[in-house]
């Protein structure tokens, strides 16, 4: 019996090739989209899950309150982790991980390594990163011990065994000894570095004087603890206030910086933590993409249901005959569900092919290797297979129910009508499809608008033609700046500790506020030179810029932004001039106020920022170059660099590109969103195309009669199109408020955002109408141009 | 074999109710060949559908093979139908997607006959109907007469006790029509009960008895043999 079903199913598919193609392609595209998203979501969810002790590892994070403000960070003070390990028996081990970007050299091979970690010795005990060589207990114990990933080992040592060999690290060229080689860290790890070295390098040697293991006010490393089995994290967290009070209560009161410690389950850090830190994912994006996947699969299934029920008229005769010769309703239902499963399985095969083809592009778009290839994960294939079977059954259920319920006498006698029940269902399904599609179009437009807005927003500083060189605080950087300044094609140079979009340090500060008190706050801090403000075209609102004419400027002067004086209670920038400050061992007064500029991405609001001259604390050389011949200018800058700083790699970037890099994840999100929106619309249109074909087929006789009576071609196209346009219009009415709400929520993540304009809806609605119109009128036109005699005769 | 008593059937649209069968009663004995005649709309086809267990009456009773089937549900009717009744239609009603062989085989599939047995039986019937050479063709590739022979083959494959024929020659030319009538006669000779709805006096004469209907009622009955 099954052979018979399969046979007839395949023959049916073949006989209605066009229809089958629409059905299968629609489903296959839907499944492919669903599959890609499944891979993406699974990959994101797999972050950090490979650690065997993941359930016992926690990250310690801090909220810090000063009298002026509060902020939360993914870090904890240097002293927290080692002290926890000492004082709490349930804490088995603690690991601090400090992200360092440093110069690494071996003979002529030199690289600026941007992600190296300085870690405590328990690192390889707590985490499951595999050492190929070296003893996990001791590899990163003594100062200047370094562990390389296989890739890094190859980079510096080729095929030689690196163990026991040395590398020069940092500008100073400290000699570090390779004590271990580890497997490359997996991509789905939020802790990810190519080079790891001992944190004792800092605590016992480089920063020995700072006594970092007992420093309660310095925040550099991220801290992780491994606790005993049976440790209740909430109870542990509840003990933290006492712990802080005991160890640093006096210090906190003295500096008026009050810290609260929290613990975050390690396995949730990547997706759920809102504190950032090393690479972070977004559970919201996971939800958004999952919903889109469900939507797309829904649209594809709806197509399937619609096309199959619309076609039921054609199958009615077969149903009648089968019933007459003895088929029972259930047998027929099984047959039709079976057919729909067959279609889904074909779609499944097509989608495997499509996914294989698209995966490289998708990986590229997602910015990571979500999956090296679908066949590398049989589990995923199995899931998709299961998914397609489910779609086959679910989507086949209704049509098979409809078909198997046909009364044989009706269909065989030919006085069979489709009835209005199915029509209503089909219409509501089309509305659902277009609601989703229109909502996705609206979403896409708004995302792109927001991206555009962020890119083109007046940032308050000039980012054009600025070349940033990473000098890493070498002593000769001023010589270098001077030399480069004299090169042809170079307009000006400046030195600083930070540039917009590149992050900055912050400092415990005390500044005189409007009431005259010294107000404590944690403020953003840029170390700049005399030319920095003009280099970036920052606008002075009051006072003056730094000047070499005032000798005290290099030690006692501070320039602040508008946000800072707002925080201090001043209404007029001029009032703030002369206010006293204490910061990082310096005392002096405010000499100028600059207009706020966006030194972070537009997702974040502008924060208070202070600027001071601090020679020897610069690590970036900002070069303004002439737009013409910039390639030649860069080449001559490099030459100069090589002659003055031969030991350091020439590392440069353009500020505008660097600043826009902050929007890369939004851009990726936007591109992915757009791609899936296009897919959704495409599948909806395929469905509409099929439905239009059948609806014109059904109305063939009506069209014939109308034509005989004298209807024009355009009249008939209108007649046929208007029905579908009505549905699209209803979908538009439903989609607009839903999309508005969702996108309004999405925009809340941005400190600077667009207002959602009415034309977005108009554009989305009219493009949906146009797309639908083109799709439908193809068939409408064909029907209206056909000879009426033909259609009347066939009835 | 068949006893119908005061059989009633109505069709209702929103505003009009049409009586298709109006307290119709008659008996048909096993082995009979009965022709039912009457103008369009007199209820012949409705009657045939009820007799074929494709439709249920709104009133009266229907006894088939000594079993009261008036209130049988669809499943029971389907079960009874597939073992006991064969149908032949004016428009042949073959499944276009199936070959001649597969069309004839279909009833055997639904009665659960094993594949090897099916092949044997289908081949025998196709041989008998002289369409063996067409066994792998699709219905559209056959002439009307050939299609109706396939339909007859399909109707008899399960060796039903009753064959219901709804204007079996309506779409055929006279020579093909006669051929089909000849086949029905042969089947009847072998003991199959046949009830045939027809417009053709010529065809009706192949039967033993003609029941003439008008407005859902039996008006006359001629016994021919």
TrEMBL record, chain A:
Main localization is membrane
Source domain of life is Bacteria
Start and end of every ABC3 transporter permease C-terminal domain? 291-406, 675-784
Q: How does it sit in the membrane?
A: Multi-pass membrane protein
Annotated organism of origin: Aquimarina addita
This protein's UniProt keywords: Cell membrane, Membrane, Transmembrane, Transmembrane helix
| Localization of this protein | Cell membrane
Q: Which residues cross the membrane?
A: 21-43, 286-307, 332-359, 379-403, 424-448, 672-694, 715-738, 758-781
Note whether Membrane occurs among the keywords: yes
MacB-like periplasmic core domain residues are: 20-239
Q: From the Swiss-Prot or TrEMBL record, give the protein name.
A: ABC transporter permease
Automatic annotation (TrEMBL), chain B:
Q: Write out the entry's keywords from A to Z.
A: ATP-binding, Nucleotide-binding, Translocase, Transport
Q: Which CDD domains match?
A: ABC_MJ0796_LolCDE_FtsE (cd03255)
Instruction: Say if the entry is tagged with keyword Iron-sulfur.
Output: no
- PROSITE patterns per UniProt: ABC_TRANSPORTER_1, ABC_TRANSPORTER_2
Key word ATP-binding present:
yes
Put simply, this protein is called ABC transporter ATP-binding protein
Any one GO molecular function term = ATP binding
